[in-house]
């Protein structure tokens, strides 16, 4: 019964966080001098909150649900969800390293360090994925002329890499403001969730 109650609580919370993430995904804005289609939003933050309370699977579900919602509500200019898949991967590359590092260093400094590492890893790995997969997929599905390797490298170094670093640091700054205000509450929620899980395990022994 405890497991059932905790599962319902988790599912309701994940659904709520996914809805918030979807709304935040719609509230996006470009930053000069980057192209207008590179936009900052803060939709990964609800998924990060979900991870801190319920674990990494919650973050995966929030990221997945927000992108599914956005794809069905707004569609994709390529006809296939290339951008949504990229957004899903980028979100997890930011959130999961942050979650695991913070779990090792549960302090404000630890969270700051975790967010910076998450931002850097997300930026670097997404640059590699854009070079080999994402940008070629965009040009293919949009029927654009294929870019040369040199053009792709220049585009990534001058645009995608610095943009993702700025986006990651912007999200980190906003989250640290939230964490300063909500850190105690988040820890209580995570502890309560862990307590319920342990209580259920003890009853099964």
Automatic annotation (TrEMBL):
Keywords: Cell membrane, Membrane, Transmembrane, Transmembrane helix, Transport. It is found in: Cell membrane. The chain crosses the membrane at residues 12-31, 43-62, 82-102, 114-135, 155-179. It is a multi-pass membrane protein. It holds the Pfam family ECF_trnsprt. It comes from the Bacteria. Gene3D superfamilies: 1.10.1760.20. InterPro entries: ECF_trnsprt_substrate-spec, RibU. Belongs to the prokaryotic riboflavin transporter (P-RFT) (TC 2.A.87) family. Probably a riboflavin-binding protein that interacts with the energy-coupling factor (ECF) ABC-transporter complex. This is Riboflavin transporter.
């Amino acid at each position: 019964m405890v497991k059932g109650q905790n599962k319902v609580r988790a599912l309701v919370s994940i659904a709520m966080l996914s809805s918030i993430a979807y709304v935040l995904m719609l509230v996006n804005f470009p930053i000069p001098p980057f192209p207008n289609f590179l936009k900052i939003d803060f939709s990964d933050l609800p998924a990060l909150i979900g991870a801190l309370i319920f674990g990494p699977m919650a973050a995966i579900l929030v990221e997945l649900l927000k992108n599914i919602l956005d794809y069905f509500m707004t569609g994709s200019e390529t006809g296939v969800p290339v951008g949504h898949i990229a957004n899903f991967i980028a979100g997890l590359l930011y959130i999961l390293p942050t979650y695991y590092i913070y779990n090792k260093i549960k302090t404000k400094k630890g969270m700051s360090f975790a967010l910076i590492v998450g931002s850097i890893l997300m930026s670097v790995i997404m640059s590699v994925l854009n070079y080999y997969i994402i940008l070629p997929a965009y040009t293919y599905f949009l029927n654009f002329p294929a870019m040369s390797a040199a053009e792709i490298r220049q585009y990534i170094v001058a645009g995608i890499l610095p943009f993702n670093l700025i986006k990651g640091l912007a999200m980190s700054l906003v989250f640290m403001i939230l964490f300063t205000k909500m850190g105690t509450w988040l820890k209580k929620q995570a502890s309560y969730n862990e307590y319920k899980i342990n209580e259920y395990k003890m009853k099964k022994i």
